[in-house]
Design a protein that fits this description.
- It is found in: Membrane.
- This is F-type H+-transporting ATPase subunit beta.
- With 345 residues, the chain is an alpha/beta fold.
- The protein has three domains: 64 residues, Orthogonal Bundle (434 Repressor (Amino-terminal Domain)); 120 residues, Rossmann fold (3-Layer(aba) Sandwich); 92 residues, Orthogonal Bundle (Bovine Mitochondrial F1-ATPase, ATP Synthase Beta Chain, Chain D, domain3), CATH 1.10.1140.
- 43% of the residues lie in helices and 12% in strands.
- The chain has a seven-stranded mixed beta sheet, sandwiched between helices.
- The longest helix has 27 residues.
Length: 345
């Protein structure tokens, strides 16, 4: 059977306010979001849902559903991103976070790493000035200030492009117009990353609209300085939910999320009542979860002054390390030995 997935790019272009539109015809926004990221297998979606989405996008079902096209990831060598929510090449990724949770640092680190790869980064500045971006946009290969200049730059560049911009252009509808024009020109070499410096996107049913990847940051991790503070449960990517998923990666992610979900529950008990209230049978889960959480912290190159040097870890090594921890082979290591390190090798 051919792999099938939702044409997220088409939905983005055709239905600007998808949350309201979906609700108006009786489709839950969460259902749409999960179909876009692959949490809900498209083959198991209700026919009326797909027909409704096709109606909203004013397209046929054949246009709405992509068959046999495999998604590819862009490996960032940032452990928590590559493991829990890989960046989809040619797709759209959204950073979901409150201000001050580290999203700008993640963007800065990504741009730094892309400079060493085969990607050209274009940063379209937000409509309003944001001092938090000072020193960050300089890492982009090109910085633009309006949609017209951005269109000109994106169409003149060759090779793979990482395009970064702010939610403000979604609100005005300009980003959707830009994507429509690019599609008309046949430009398909662009991977988009969206951020929201206001933090309002956290409260939305479908942040930014349809997305292939969601990087949701976690206030608890940020408060405890466990950076990058990427939520291991709520962050997701269509690459790890689709038919063509790497089965080993998928299984390890499932195991890791199960462990971390229970660890977070136990941690709440420890914070209130102390570790002595944890049943002996759960201590292993708590200790192993604590070590896995520590492993996913990582020193960034752009924060070298504070971390002493950045670390890059290939996905293959991350999978090997996570399996090592899940199998209990790191139980004798201290949390400090695992925190802000690269690989375990």
């Amino acid at each position: 059977m051919d792999s099938i997935r939702l044409n997220v790019a088409l939905l983005r272009r055709k239905v600007p306010n998808l949350t309201t539109a979906a609700k108006s015809i009786g489709i839950r926004p969460a259902t749409v979001s999960n179909l876009c990221t692959g949490k809900i297998d498209l083959g198991k979606a209700e026919v009326r849902t797909l027909v409704g989405l096709a109606m909203l996008a004013n397209c046929t079902l054949d246009e709405l559903i992509i068959r046999g096209e495999k998604l590819n990831m862009i490996e960032t060598q940032i452990k928590t991103l590559d493991f829990f929510a890989p960046l989809v090449k040619g797709g759209t990724t959204g950073l979901v976070a409150r201000p001050g949770m580290g999203q700008v640092v993640i963007l800065a680190e990504l741009m730094h790493r892309f400079k060493k790869g085969d990607y050209t980064t274009v940063f379209l500045l937000p409509v309003a000035e944001h001092s938090v971006l000072e020193g960050t946009t300089e890492l982009a290969d090109f910085v633009t200030t309006n949609i017209e200049d951005t269109f000109a730059k994106l169409t003149e560049l060759d090779g793979d492009i990482i395009f970064i911009t702010d939610k403000s252009y979604i609100v005005t509808g300009e980003l959707l117009d830009l994507q429509e024009k690019l599609a008309t020109e046949g430009v398909s070499n662009i991977t988009t990353i969206l951020l929201d410096l206001s933090g309002e996107v956290v409260d939305e049913d479908i942040p930014y609209g349809p997305l292939e990847t969601v990087w949701q940051l976690d206030a608890d991790l940020a408060t405890r300085h466990q950076y990058p503070a990427v939520h291991p449960i709520y962050s997701t990517s269509s690459i790890l939910e689709g038919v063509d998923v790497d089965q080993r990666h998928f299984n390890l992610r499932q195991r890791a999320q199960k462990l971390l979900r229970r660890y977070r529950e136990l941690r709440s008990i420890v914070n209130v009542h102390g570790i002595e209230k944890i049943p002996d049978v759960e201590l292993e889960v708590y200790n192993r979860g604590e070590r896995l959480e520590a492993y996913f912290t990582q020193p960034f190159f752009v924060a070298e002054a504070y971390t002493g040097g950045g670390k890059a870890v290939a996905l293959a090594q991350t999978l090997k390390d996570v399996e090592f921890i899940l199998d209990g082979k790191a139980d004798q290591m201290s949390v400090k030995e695992l925190q802000y390190q690269g690989s375990l090798s």
